[in-house]
Design a protein that fits this description.
Length: about 300
């Protein structure tokens, strides 16, 4: 396959950080492609749609994967525990055969351990459960991490969690949008996070664009984040100081919120305790009392407060 066959002259690999608030650092990077026809940008969806029509999706996917691995090496040399998230074309999984791929050889040549690689799959776009099970079993056995991308959207199914047994689940950005004011979405995200933690999978809030979305997710015990609020994808070495400052700032805001909530609950408990003691004293002072009198006493006590 030649690049001009799919209407592009060149492409670049961009990286978007995935951060952990509690550990105050970068957890990993997702590799993203930016394709061009001379100076005209071509959106990834457009690029892969055309590649699919021409029957070269797998070839394009492999080419991008190899370039991503090569570009990631410099990040890994600086921080050996950093993970690289690689998107896997669904058609590759649907037709998967358990044979070694070129990118595995590429990893060995660059001395990149399999445990530093996360293979992202969009399970709702995969038609064969058997192929998906074979793919995940093959790569997990070789030490790779498996992530489910865009979970909670389209035809995503909880039952497929038992097939994939993911190490990481990325909650789709549509569920996280306005999560701080959208009660239903918050409850859905809470349920997804609870199930994931119960099966031992880490959870990433993906596509966060506002600090309030991060704060609400933190209240749901989600620690890993990816989105424009932290950093746009970039081809160059990102300003890590700015990124770490954002992580520190949002962490402090979360701690202040928790302190305020604890203080509010303590005051509420103390107020309730005072009222209860006064009611008990009132009841003890009355020799004969019926339910109506108790009700009126409680109502009057509330007015006093």
């Amino acid at each position: 396959m030649q690049l001009h066959d799919i209407g592009i002259t060149h492409f670049d690999i961009y990286f978007q950080p995935i951060v952990t608030i509690r550990q105050k650092t970068v957890f990993g990077y997702e590799a993203l492609v930016r394709a061009y026809n001379n100076k005209s940008y071509i959106a990834p969806d457009t690029l892969f749609s055309k590649a699919k029509r021409l029957g070269v999706s797998a070839e394009l996917d492999e080419l991008i994967r190899l370039e991503s691995i090569k570009s990631f090496k410099t990040y890994l040399d600086e921080h050996p525990r950093t993970l690289l998230f690689l998107n896997i074309e669904p058609s590759f999984i649907d037709t998967f055969q358990p044979v070694e791929q070129n990118f595995e050889n590429h990893l060995r040549q660059l001395n990149i351990p399999a445990e530093n690689i996360v293979l992202e799959i969009k399970e709702e776009a995969i038609t064969s459960n058997d192929a998906m099970a074979a793919f995940t079993a093959y790569y997990k056995e070789r030490g790779f991490n498996i992530a489910i991308d865009d979970f909670g959207t389209g035809q995503s199914q909880f039952e497929r969690l038992s097939i994939v047994r993911p190490d990481i689940v990325k909650i789709d950005k549509t569920l996280l949008r306005d999560i701080d004011t959208h009660y239903i979405n918050a409850e859905i995200v809470k349920a997804i996070a609870r199930v994931c933690y119960n099966i031992g999978a880490l959870v990433i809030s993906e596509g966060v664009e506002r600090p309030s979305e991060v704060l609400k997710s933190l209240n749901l015990d989600i620690d890993l984040y990816q989105g424009y609020w932290f950093s746009h994808p970039t081809a160059n070495t990102m300003n890590k100081e700015v990124l770490l400052n954002k992580i520190e700032t949002i962490g402090l805001q979360h701690r202040e919120q928790r302190k305020s909530l604890i203080c509010f609950k303590e005051n509420l408990f103390n107020d309730a305790s005072v009222i209860a003691k006064k009611l008990i004293a009132l009841i003890k002072s009355i020799k004969s009392i019926d339910d109506v009198q108790i009700f009126n006493a409680a109502k009057n006590e509330k007015k006093i407060e």
